[in-house]
Structures are given as structure tokens and as C-alpha cells.
Amino acid sequence: MTHLDTSFLFKLYVVELDSATAIAKFGLLSGPAAISNLSDVEMATSFYRKLPVAQAQRCYANYRADESQGVLQRVDLSAAVYQLAGSLAGQYAATFKLRSLDTLQLATALHYGATVLGTYDDRLKRAAQAAGLAIL
């Protein structure tokens, strides 16, 4: 399974540096990519913070449509994910300077058995590799 963080997801809906590469890599996946409830909040916040309202609404609608069509598969941020994130903070936050939401993304990927993480965040990338995940 591949888990996508917001830095990767955003590039699928808004043209920016590395969007073409992200889209190409995403197209190579076999099956849906995992996202979480956290992804919804981060995507909505990113769209509305960076784009005009009408464009943000379209991008968010496209993102939600991909989920409803099974392109993206939602996994829950359960108590077990938060517990794992707390443990990971002790292991990786100091070394890689992970922020809390990045630690939750990593914990979600690991908890649900992802073997690959799609991210463009350098700190999260290094922590995910240290945790044994491949990077998309």
C-alpha cells in the first residue's frame, strides 16, 4: 500500500513545481492510494490558503471526487495511530525535526502497513526511510 501526504497530494490538483512528476508517479500505482482524515483538513486548508476561493472549491471537489471514485482510500486516525505517533515522536522528531502533523502522517502509514510513502517533505522523507518505507 502507498500512503500519500499532503505535500504529494496537493501537486496532483494544483500545478506547481514537481506536479508533472507527482502525477506520473501517481499514475504508476496499482490500486488506490491511502489518505486519512488528516489529509482532508490539510488539503482544504492548503487549497483555501493558497488559491482564490472558486479555484479552491474546484480543487477540493476534485480531490473529494477521487476519493468517492476509489482512486484514494481513506483510513482512520484511530487511537492506535495517535499512540504510535507519540512513540515515533520520541524516535524521529528530534533527529529529523518532524512536526506533529508529519509524525501523524508517518504513524498512519506505518499503522496501516504502507510500504511506500508519497511525500515532497524532506524531513518526513528522511524519517520515513529510517522507519523502513520506500519513497514514491
Q: Would you give an account of this structure?
A:
This protein is mostly helical. It has a single domain, classed as Rossmann fold, CATH 3.40.50. 63% of the residues lie in helices and 12% in strands. The strands form two sheets. A three-stranded parallel β-sheet has the order 1-4-5. Strand 4, helix 7 and strand 5 form a beta-alpha-beta unit. The termini are close together.
Looking at this protein, list some descriptive labels.
136 residues, mainly alpha, Rossmann fold, 3-stranded parallel beta sheet, two-stranded parallel sheet, 7 helices, 5 strands, globular
Write the layout of secondary structure elements.
Blueprint: E1 2-4, H1 6-13, H2 19-27, E2 33-36, H3 37-50, H4 53-68, E3 72-75, H5 79-96, H6 100-111, E4 116-118, H7 122-130, E5 134-135
Parallel strand pairs: 1-4, 2-3, 4-5
Helix pairs in contact: 1-2, 3-4, 5-6, 5-7
Describe, in short, the structure shown.
The protein has 136 residues and is mostly helical. The chain has helices at residues 6-13, 19-27, 37-50, 53-68, 79-96, 100-111, 122-130; strands at residues 2-4, 33-36, 72-75, 116-118, 134-135. The longest helix has 18 residues, at 79-96.
Distance between the termini: 11 Å
What strand order characterises the main sheet? 1-4-5
Q: If classified by CATH, what would the architecture be?
A: 3-Layer(aba) Sandwich
Shape: globular
Structural class: mainly alpha
Order of helices and strands: EHHEHHEHHEHE
**Alpha plus pi helix count:** 7
Could you say what the CATH topology is called? Rossmann fold
Rounded average pLDDT: 95
